[in-house]
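Obj: model holo form, ligand = uridine-diphosphate-N-acetylglucosamine.
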Amino acid sequence: MNKNKISIVILAAGKGSRMKSAKAKVLHKVCGKEMLYHIIKASRKISDDITVVLAHQKEAVMESMRAYFSDINFAIQDDVNFPGTGGAMKNISVRHEKVLVLNGDMPLVTSEALSGFLESDSEIIMSIFKLQNPNGYGRVIIKNGDVKKIVEHKDASIAELEITTVNAGVYAFSKDILEKYVPQLKNDNAQKEYYLTDIISMARAEGLNVSPLLVDEEHFKGVNSKKDLADAEEIMQNRIKRAFMESGVSMQLPSTIYIEEGVVFEGECIVENGCRITGNSRIINSHIKAHSVIEDSIVKNSDVGPLAHLRPASHIEDTHIGNFVEVKKSTLKGAKAGHLSYIGDATVDKGTNIGAGVITCNYDGINKYKTTIGKNVFIGSDSQLIAPITVQDNVMVAAGTTVRSGTINSGELAVSSAKQRVIKDFYYKFFSKK
Ligand code: UD1
Ligand code: MG
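Output (holo structure tokens):
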């Protein structure tokens, strides 16, 4: 595809009041990334001139998109005087002769799905799909095979509401068409908004051709409510997991697994049912067992879970992480933590075994501190390591020890548990049984 042929304008200025949220609609996330991120990502594959139109919460939207993309333009809509999708297109300047206009609430769109708009030379191409439930969408009025106009749901007559052919919200216009018709748009409708969709009837009235392009809901679904958001997420989840399975990742009951956009798998991996893997996690030649959660972490040549939780910035390599183990911002290489532990702000080196119930006490209520554990260390069950602390190579910590001092040197045993006493017949006396 020639990226230098088409400009893309993404409409993202609306309030999105049907989301019932203080957050701008286009910042709601689908599979871990904002809706607008997904649309820009698809757009960048086919265009080198992308403009995002903003108004509502413009600073927040700009800031979050700048974190991902440095090469997109922003335009600000005068949404007080010119509300609506037509108002959003006022005073937009683009570089190329052909302009693709996308609604900012279609996170499922892909560059492949947009290719149909690039292939035709028609002055106006509009996307349509047929829906069982067309609720909320603009209805497309077609007479004798010709598109006549788009009627918004709120303006439709009872008969028009029956129409199931709807406007999907993507259009390709020639620059001349936009320059001619956008200034002529009016707001004489139920919402008192300037509808971009009115260009269709205006152009038709002057005898211009409108080419309808049949698209599918799987790529062009608009997200207007939390229900739509959940439906879109399910579609994208299936896409993400299908692609990973095709590239060789084994998944058990994939419908119960959640994997965000940004996660990477390498080599041979198995993900069991109920797992959640998010952020920029990288899983390499590893086995993630049932119901484990991995956030923004690296797991290499390791097995994790069942029911383990790797919180952000964990790096697990050649390591066994067992059930009910929580790891945060820690690096474990060649180690074992089999059961019921919390390992936070720590490094754990090769050959070391973390016993059941061991806890790194990394927080004193004000600050966080580091725990450094060397090679071939044996930390007995139910021990607490009060950070900051360094446990050198070849150290033993007895079960039930609270390790408080700064450094345990190589070869030492740390033991703090009280000496065991045995009191004869105590049980019988206590319960008066004898
Ligand atoms: C719009 C279409 C409708 C189509 C549907 C497809 C219009 C008038 N209607 O309806 O025909 O079936 O999309 O999903 O275009 N926006 C702005 N500025 C505004 C208002 C909206 O930039 O003043 C942006 C929104 O942020 C959103 C997009 O335009 O990303 C669409 O707006 P929305 O309110 O969702 O339009 P729909 O009612 O869904
Ligand atoms: Mg919409």
